[in-house]
Amino acid sequence: MYMRVFAALSVLVAVTAGSAAAQLRPVFHGVLSVKGGSGSIDHGAGIGALRVKRWVFTLSLDSDGISPATEPIVIGVGENDQLVIPAGQVKMSRNGKRFTYRSPGIPRGVRSLTMKRLKDAPDGTRRYATALSVVGADLSKLVTSSPTCVPLAIIVGDDDGFSGVDIERPRILTGGSRLRVLGPCSDVGDWPWLGS
To answer: 134: number of CA atoms within 13 Å, CB side?
Structure first.
């Protein structure tokens, strides 16, 4: 009985997460400032994990703001991968400036996300220091090519921040699994998730 209930809940969560991703249509396009990070990849499957800290998500000047605690969040990796945090899963601090999400042990998705409101930029745009950890992401380009410029986006409600991310597999010739996030890159073309 327990297994049937668990299976039904798993299907419901998957359907809900998928529909949340499909419904997001960012209107306000901000900037994702990328720094270093680390990760790993399964050489055979091309599935990997990424961990980054101290990135900055700057909202567009005309944005009406974000509410990570009440809006769905999608981390877009590569051209097609959308890892969803359903609305209401992120916790907000008492002062309303720090937002955290934890889901340790999952095989695919967002394991952790932290967004902290920073002082506004001189032009008045709102900024958030961002750290995240994702697992089960499609990083198959890194099986045969290193470094590779991978598109990555953070989408909160109708706001997004997008950047190319340069990822290196230092020991690709010997089948090593370690990844290094080197920083931003621009060889990603147009924003790949628009209208997906």
So the answer is: 24
Strands, E assignment, the chain = 28-33, 37-42, 47-58, 73-77, 81-85, 91-92, 98-102, 109-117, 127-138, 148-156, 159-168, 178-185
Report the phi/psi class of residue 150: left, alpha or beta, with left for phi > 0 and alpha for psi in -120 to 50.
beta
Which ranges in the chain belong to alpha helices (H)? 2-23
Q: How confident is the model at residue 44 (pLDDT cuts 50, 70, 90)?
A: confident
Peptide bond into 72 cis (omega under 30): no
Please give the DSSP secondary-structure letter assigned to residue 140. G
Six-digit token string for 116 = 């902290």
Q: 79 falls in which pLDDT band (50, 70, 90)?
A: confident
Q: Hey, which residues does 134 pair with through a beta bridge?
A: 50, 110
Residues 137-158, buried b or exposed e (16+ Cβ, 10 A)?
A: bbbbbbbeebbbbbbbbbbbbe
